[in-house]
Specification:
By secondary structure, this protein is α/β, with parallel strands linked by helices. It has ten helices and 13 strands. It starts with a strand and ends with a strand. The model has no long low-confidence stretch (mean pLDDT 95). Pfam families: LpxI_C, LpxI_N. InterPro entries: LpxI, LpxI_C, LpxI_C_sf, LpxI_N.
Length: 264
Amino acid sequence: MKVGLLAGKGELPLEFLKSAKEKDIRTITFSLEGITSPEVERYSDKVIWIKPFKLGKFLRTLKKEEIREIAILGKVEHKNAISLSGFDLKALTFIASLRDRKPETIIKGIISEIENIGVRVIEPTKYLLHLFQEPGIICGELTDKLKEDAEFGMKIAKEIASLDIGQTVVVKDKTVIAVEGIEGTDKCIERGAELAGKGFIVCKAARKNQDMRVDVPTVGAKTIELIGKLKGRALIFEANKTFLLNKEEAVRLSRKYGITVIAV
């Protein structure tokens, strides 16, 4: 048995490949030059490097490899969909055909292009179940004030995620300080910290009808370290719909910086 992976930036593609290896499933990874971690070479049975935004070449190569199933994981900056830099003719035609350039619209459009050549795009979650968290306190304590801010923030985060604006909000004292847009989670947190000062909390949520093939929320040790360095108070995320990377390191950093981490 073999499975394909279209890998973007970050650690999620590596977690997928490690899990597939443990299950004795052969992997063929389509990696994006300058974006995908070279570490995919270590865990993949075969790696095919492709220049970013060369959709035509990717589809031709995918068909040639005779893969029945493929997953899509990892970050590709959304701002590139606006700049159109490096797009081949197929990619330009594809972008022009979309009703808008929201992240979900783009990814679902790519899924349709892949499935049109006879390859099924699968949910990667069966390879990543170990990254999901049940509801509960992972580190720290839930005070009454934090509970109020968390409930307020998660409600807003859920709404903006469902509108496909972003997945993250920064709140303080039941006030929205920053909303994630095209800049991404880290920049949103940095902007929120600058405006709120110490004691802010970060909330991250999935869409109301989250397609688990598309842009599943992800947090991890790096997120917590950023919040800690900027003197934030807590990270709240949606249980069983958010990937938590490097949990042991995340807990260590949470204790170091005095950050409460909760899956709700």
